[in-house]
Amino acid sequence: MTPVWARKPTLVLLIAVLALAVFGATTQTWITVNLDPDQLGQAGGQNTLPVQGSKAATAVTALAVVALAGGLAASIAGRIARILITAIIILASAGIITAATTVLSDPLAAAQGSIAAATGVTGGSAEVSVTAFPVLAVVAGALLGLGALLIIPAGRYWKSRTKYDVAAAGAGTGAAAGSAASDATPAAGGVPAPAGPVNEIDSWDRLSRGDDPT
Question: Where are any strands of DSSP class E within the chain?
Answer without folding.
Answer: 29-34, 48-52, 127-130
